[in-house]
Write a structure and sequence with these properties.
It comes from Enterobacter sp. (strain 638). The protein is an alpha+beta fold and 102 residues long. 39% of the residues lie in helices and 22% in strands. Strand 1 and strand 2 form a beta hairpin. The longest helix has 12 residues.
């Protein structure tokens, strides 16, 4: 069975807001956002730019990462986009199985 790789991405709007999403094809999804066929949250937001994208693997992990990143402050998202290592740390924290407690 073919495994599909999911990506997490952040889009920057004209007013400098960051939108977080997941997809299996970043180029296609970004084009959908640019042409008004993507998320309603980005429609009418002016010029869009792809600020960040990274492969995360399976869909379940991509959904977890998307949720966690959407919980971050704008400053924390900006650091992630700048490549401060926070994406890698978050990725690793979600890869580690939970500790079983007695």
């Amino acid at each position: 069975m073919l495994t599909v790789c999911w990506f997490l991405y952040l889009v920057r709007t004209a007013d400098n807001a960051l939108y977080t999403g997941i997809t299996t094809d970043v180029g296609r999804r970004f084009l959908e956002h640019q042409t008004g066929k993507g998320a309603k949250a980005l429609r009418g937001k002016g010029e869009l730019s792809l600020a960040f994208s990274a492969p995360v693997g399976e869909r379940s992990l991509a959904l977890k990462m998307e949720y966690r990143i959407k919980q971050l402050t704008k400053r924390q998202k900006e650091r992630l986009v700048a490549g401060d290592g926070s994406f890698e740390a978050l990725y690793e924290s979600l890869q580690t199985p939970p500790v079983k407690r007695d």
